[in-house]
């Protein structure tokens, strides 16, 4: 079984994260992982945590302070990333 994690980022956290539901996976060796675009759960355990706290720790390095984290086209970049270009997005029944 591949461990997975899904979370929902509310709209008011836009800019800190990408709003919406997201699922990720990581292999048992913790060497390979990424976005999950679609899945069917044949068997497994689902646990819910209704978290209300947001803890954000940012680096204090000069490199981080100088990083361009707010490009003019940030909204365009996020929209392109979240469209999962090349993926069949038709509804499945």
Polypeptide structure, described:
The protein has helices spanning 62-66, 74-82; strands at residues 4-9, 20-26, 33-36. With 93 residues, the chain is α+β, with helices and mostly antiparallel strands. It has a three-stranded antiparallel β-sheet with strand order 1-2-3, with no helix packed on it. 0% of the residues are buried. The protein starts with a strand and ends in an 11-residue tail after the last helix.
| Rg on CA atoms, Å | 16 Å
How do the strands line up in the largest sheet? 1-2-3
Give average pLDDT, whole number: 79
Could you give a short account of the major beta sheet? 3 strands, antiparallel
Helix coverage percent: 10-25%
The end-to-end distance, rounded to whole angstroms, is 25 Å
Total helices: the number is: 2
Low-confidence stretches: 86-93
- Oligomeric assembly: single chain
- Per the principal axes of the C-alpha atoms, what is the gross shape? globular
Decide which structural class fits the backbone: alpha+beta
Order of helices and strands: EEEHH
Number of strands: 3
